[in-house]
TrEMBL record:
<dbReference type="GO" id="GO:0004497">
    <property type="term" value="F:monooxygenase activity"/>
</dbReference>
<feature type="binding site" description="axial binding residue">
    <location>
        <position position="202"/>
    </location>
    <ligand>
        <name>heme</name>
    </ligand>
</feature>
<dbReference type="GO" id="GO:0020037">
    <property type="term" value="F:heme binding"/>
</dbReference>
<keyword id="KW-0560">Oxidoreductase</keyword>
<dbReference type="InterPro" id="IPR001128">
    <property type="entry name" value="Cyt_P450"/>
</dbReference>
<dbReference type="Pfam" id="PF00067">
    <property type="entry name" value="p450"/>
</dbReference>
<dbReference type="GO" id="GO:0005506">
    <property type="term" value="F:iron ion binding"/>
</dbReference>
<keyword id="KW-0349">Heme</keyword>
<keyword id="KW-0479">Metal-binding</keyword>
<protein>
    <recommendedName>
        <fullName>Cytochrome P450</fullName>
    </recommendedName>
</protein>
<dbReference type="GO" id="GO:0016705">
    <property type="term" value="F:oxidoreductase activity, acting on paired donors, with incorporation or reduction of molecular oxygen"/>
</dbReference>
<keyword id="KW-0503">Monooxygenase</keyword>
<comment type="similarity">
    <text>Belongs to the cytochrome P450 family.</text>
</comment>
<dbReference type="InterPro" id="IPR002401">
    <property type="entry name" value="Cyt_P450_E_grp-I"/>
</dbReference>
<dbReference type="InterPro" id="IPR036396">
    <property type="entry name" value="Cyt_P450_sf"/>
</dbReference>
<keyword id="KW-0408">Iron</keyword>
Amino acid sequence: MKQLHKKLDAFWEEKIQEHCRSKCSKGGHFLDFLISFTASTTPEAERLSLDDIKGALMDLFAAGTDTTSVAVEWAMSEVLNNKDVLKKAQEELEQVVSNTSMVQESHLHRLKYLQAIVKESLRLHPPSPLLGAREALESCEIGGYMIPKGTRLIVNEWCLGRDESVWERPTDFLPERFLQTQMDVRGQNFELIPFGGGRCICMGLPLALCNVQLSLANLLHCFDWQLPTHQALDMLDKFAGITLPKATPLLVMPTPRLPKEFYSREFTQGELI
Ligand code: HEM
């Protein structure tokens, strides 16, 4: 841990210095905002040290990297295991985006079925299944349970998403369940809180949703996919400390669907990625 800490500390130091030296830093970058709080003109109580900035960057990268890739991998796996879902998603993409363009952020609000796929995948596979731990500052009562002051409280979002008193056919992957409802993942519907809720809700939520939807949309729009065997994918998970990735990584064969100029390299038939 000590060795890794030194390595990581040097990495952040270099990135911050590199950013300060870079001519493209014109004040609009998040890092510029943080650095502006190191100035001696900032009131002492609000002033940030270099270590504070490194800590903030560390938090963002730790909280935002694995969670996002785990979410995309699960959604891809569910779609590939459910061929009718794949077909509907690709039809929607063809209608909204057309085959002469990649998916842009501006298309996302019209991709209702794709949004439903992402919600349904987050329901079954919340990347951060125990959210963030809470501690009761005061004794209180929740749902008839007495919670004494100082109690550590851990929310099992994985179970909430599969609760049969809330969800019909809870273990089936059915994006359609979200088409006729306003239910969302933004912390207002307590049946579905993969980003948590309240004051500690994930601060990267808008970025995360956009990244997951956009990555998944482009994977489905730009390629046809085949599994290496005719068997259904292994959907077992394996807890990795904070996140819950697949126990066996997804391996699939892509075939390009768009004109050649959209790809930076060629894909050979049967290539596994
Ligand atoms: C699909 C992707 C993501 C998922 C599922 C996710 C989920 C979560 C969850 C469950 C929490 C705890 C919320 C709570 O306890 O109520 C959290 C906190 C947090 N997330 Fe995310 N997150 C994702 C992506 C991101 C990204 C992209 C960033 C930033 C770039 C980010 C930054 C954070 C931070 C800083 C916190 C701590 C917030 C606090 O304690 O005040 N997350 N996230």
